[in-house]
Amino acid sequence: MSASNTTPAPTALPVTPAKKFDWLPLMPWIYTIGLFLIWELGVRLSGVSHTIMPAPSRIFEAIIQYWGAIQRHSIQTLYTTSVGFLMAVVGGLALGLLIGWSRMIYAGLYPLMVGFNAIPKVAVVPILVIWFGIGTVPAILTAFLIAFFPIVVNVATGLATIEPETEDVLRALGAKKMDIMLKVGIPRSMPYFFGSLKIAITLAFVGSVISETVAANSGLGYMMSAAQSQFNVPLVWAGLIMLAVEGIAMYALMAWIEKRTTGWAHRSQTMAG
Amino acid sequence: MGASLVTIDNVDMRYGGADGTLAVSGLNMVVERGEFAAVVGPSGCGKSTLMKLVTGLHIPQQGLVTVAGIHVTKPVSIVGMAFQNPTMLPWRTTLDNVLLPLEIVERHRRRLRKHKKEYVEKAEHLLETVGLKGFGSKYPWQLSGGMQQRANLCRALIHEPELLMLDEPFGALDAFTREELWQVIRDLHASQDVTIVLVTHDLREAVFLADNVHVMSARPGKILKVHKIGFARPRDLSVMYEAEFNDVVQGLRGEIADARAVA
After folding, report:
1. Where are the beta strands (DSSP E) in chain B?
2. Are residues B181 and B195 in the same domain?
């Protein structure tokens, strides 16, 4: 086994050029463009109507044609999503720390939270509309409600998984619960917290768009449902593309924040050596 | 003012209420100031319970534990602890990990900010003693298992504890690293004014390091016998290849086998 592996190595080594073009950073673009090309070709060759499945070229045409409206609605959705998400970050972090702090609070709140999370958020929107009217507020609150849970669970998990030995070492020194939380629990839960932000931001988009679709007169959700009722299918797809773009941008931002703040948890790739 | 630092007098410790497991029963033990004591016994004999009783993490239902003449009713901060798992905090450098106890212990945390330099020097000196000079700025995950355990010992010693409790600290290391660390801990004991209680499964380790080896029975644990180990200090690793050393180890092994058979 070892002979067959090692023999070609000395001869093979000089063959590989010293400077090889690094394709890796380009891969996301190549795949994305590839997807659009296949899509375009598929639609053109099969002759499917634009009202059923518009080709990407037709969708980009729609984006340019309706750019003013798309821009306004995109900014509205980005705004409701971000505000709801920030509320979820603050609330989720606070509740996560509270739950992780005390076994009693954990035992009491956990089943309630699971039950609450199981409720489809689209069913909550009508109630929010009764309370706040249609528009921005229900969209923000729906984004908040849906993004909140993963943050709480992750922060609480980080606190709950402190090694008992670490706790013993510190408690034997006379550490109070507060000391252990500040020195160990909170730093420890940060990778979980920042990891959960990536999930939470995507969910926040789901929440705000649901609410906008059901009860709003601005935002991408509203724009898409209005376009659909006018049978403007390319515009519906344009809305989807804008959502994907916003989602990717926010996800990338969260991933960047995660990497910057908790480098020690990603040691093998970023900080080794 | 007696010479004994730790006394355990007829202690019962039961987990999980009145019908729970009796971990130790009728436990008696005395550790003199400056002594190196080792505790050996069959697995599950309550050695870790012993650790927690002495450090005040557990308060016994019956009997009396005193450390430095004070009845233990809450965690005693004159103790340092180290476990098999080094439990270094990965977001802190090795130096900051070693300094952690100073941020906790009451009499140090008030002085830490103003006298930071003095404490850092002390930590660096300790790291040098265990052979980690220059590694203070490294993160724990950049160190090998043996190096992490060395840093762990420094952390246990930084607040100058009178008593160092070690729970199988070398259990997860390879044989050569273990021997190196035996010498490290031997030299620490010789150079610092510290009493050490070492809980271990390794009889050769116990005999090489300790002044007294306490043999525990199977659960519920109590001390069956205390062996005085007479080899002259400082001991060299070569002592382990003497016939006398092997006789002691073999004797201990027989006793523990008996203790297991009884259970």
Report:
1. 4-14, 22-32, 36-40, 62-67, 70-71, 79-83, 163-167, 195-199, 212-216, 223-228
2. yes
CATH architecture of A56-261: Orthogonal Bundle (1.10)
Put simply, the answer to whether A183 touches B100 (Cβ < 8 Å) is yes
Encode A232-262: b = buried (16+ Cβ within 10 Å), e = exposed: bbbbbbbbeebbeebbeebbeebeeebeeeb
Q: How far is A149 from chain B (nearest CA, A)?
A: 26
Q: Does B168 share its domain with B74?
A: yes
Residues B74 and B175 in one domain: yes
As a whole number of angstroms, the distance between CA B215 and CA B101 comes to 31
Strand pairing category for B4-14 and B22-32: antiparallel
In this structure, the answer to whether residues B50 and B112 fall within a common structural domain is no
Q: To probe the interface with B, which of A166, A173, A193 has the most B CB atoms within 10 Å?
A: A173
Of A168, A174, A267, the CB nearest to B77: A174
B183 with B231, same domain? Answer: yes
Does residue B13 fall inside a structural domain?
no
Q: CB neighbours (10 Å) of residue B38?
A: 26
- Note the residue count of chain A: 273
End position of a domain, from candidates B137, B160, B183: B160
Residue whose C-alpha is closest to residue A31's, from A22, A20, A39, A43: A39
Asked if B120 and B103 count as a contact pair (C-beta separation under 8 A), the reply is no
Whether residue B215 sits in one domain with residue B262: yes
Contact: A265, B90; criterion CB under 8 Å: yes
Chain B CA closest to residue A178: B104
Query: Closest by alpha carbon to B82, among B107, B55, B58, B60?
Result: B55
- Asked if this assembly's ipTM is beyond 0.85, the reply is no
For B10: left if phi > 0, alpha if psi spans -120 to 50, otherwise beta; the answer is left
- Domain boundaries along the sequence of chain A: 56-261
A122 interface with B at CB cutoff 8 Å: no
Q: How many domains does chain B have?
A: 2
Please tell me if residue A173 touches chain B, with a CB cutoff of 8 Å.
yes
Same domain, B254 and B169: yes
Give the integer Cα–Cα distance in Å for B133 and A230: 74
pLDDT averaged over 10-residue windows placed end to end, chain A, 273 residues: 44 57 89 95 90 91 94 95 96 90 86 89 91 93 94 88 84 85 88 91 94 92 94 94 95 90 63 40
Instruction: Locate the chain B residue with the closest alpha carbon to A272.
Output: B142
